Amino acid sequence: MQTFSARIKWVVTLIFFVLLLGTFGFHEIYHARWDLAFYFIIAIMSTVSDPRITPHGSTQLIFNTVVIIVGTGVWIFGLSIIVSYFLESDMGYFKERRTMRAIERMTDHFVIIGAGRVGESIAVELHQLGEQVVVLDPDASRIERIKGLGLPALIISGFDAEALKVANLPKARGFALALPDDAQNLYAYLTARDLNPDLLVVARAQTQESAHYLRNLGVNRIILPDLLTGRRIARMLAKPVAQDLLMALLNEEGVHVQEIYVNPGDPIANQPVQKVREIYGEAVTLIGYWHDSKLHMAPRAQDLIVPGDTVILVQVDDS
């Protein structure tokens, strides 16, 4: 799609050629001086009446008709571009204001900084899981692509507190750092922690060294995409069946993974692991639980689930 400036250049070019050819035509057909010929084309394009440009003969009549049609068309074309520009600007402003009002009402949502391939996939996945998301990025083209997916996205000029506040970060539940630059991720993280100390933060890192610094600063989860991809490919080669099972769990292909935080009044609170199926159904399997900042996999039947734990349940589709 052409930009407004490009379309204006087209209009100016068309007007220039109409004026040039019209001036030449009035000079040759009406035998007018060059300055008077230029005035005549301006007058006829502006629908100003002048008895000196009244056509006499078929040649002048045809010439005037062509000039009127072409000149009027050029003016209408230029006017339509200007009007459409202001309409698009107003519509864009109103859409932006509507998005901002929706973000201001959000609570317990997720903020993603970085609208590249990684950030886009995070946003789409969270949206499909029924979560509210806001995507931030300094790149306008990336933000427009996210908006095209129907997701709230905003352009930011930096990673300071004022820039991140536009996503209502103090009321957010989680924050994903998906920028390709580790230094920018680090700066954005420090700003976010200052705005919301209780924020759950997951970061993308390019190197082990960056991951080490982010972990020491308190980032909850860190992903190294290159390392993770390499490990998965290696395991697909060495242990394909086991990796297929893990991928099915990760992608929820034929299975449903539930993460349940245990409150004091929940049925599972203060109950042993062996009671899970009795409480949640025979089709459910508990594969682990989070207790005292530690993940317990394949728990024993007599292990006790207490308030504050998080249980991970898996249910396989009957089909």
Helix and strand sequence? HHHEHEHEHEHEHEHHEEHEEEE
Measured as a percent range, the helix fraction is 40-55%
Number of strands: 12
Q: What's the name of the CATH homologous superfamily of the largest domain?
A: NAD(P)-binding Rossmann-like Domain
Instruction: Report Rg.
Output: 33 Å
Dominant shape = elongated
Strand order of the largest sheet: 3-2-1-4-5-6
CATH class of the largest domain: Alpha Beta
Structural category? alpha/beta
List low-confidence stretches: none
Spatial gap, N to C terminus: 47 Å
Q: Any idea how many domains? A: 3
Biggest sheet layout: 6 strands, parallel
Main traits of this protein?
six-stranded parallel β-sheet; Alpha-Beta Plaits; four-stranded antiparallel β-sheet; 3 domains; Helix Hairpins; single chain; 319 residues; alpha/beta; Rossmann fold
Write the layout of secondary structure elements.
Blueprint: H1 4-29, H2 34-45, H3 58-104, E1 110-113, H4 117-128, E2 133-137, H5 140-148, E3 153-155, H6 161-165, E4 174-177, H7 182-195, E5 200-204, H8 208-216, E6 221-223, H9 225-238, H10 240-251, E7 255-261, E8 271-272, H11 276-280, E9 284-291, E10 294-297, E11 304-305, E12 310-316
Parallel strand pairs: 1-2, 1-4, 2-3, 4-5, 5-6
Antiparallel strand pairs: 7-12, 8-11, 9-10, 9-12
Helix pairs in contact: 1-2, 1-3, 9-10
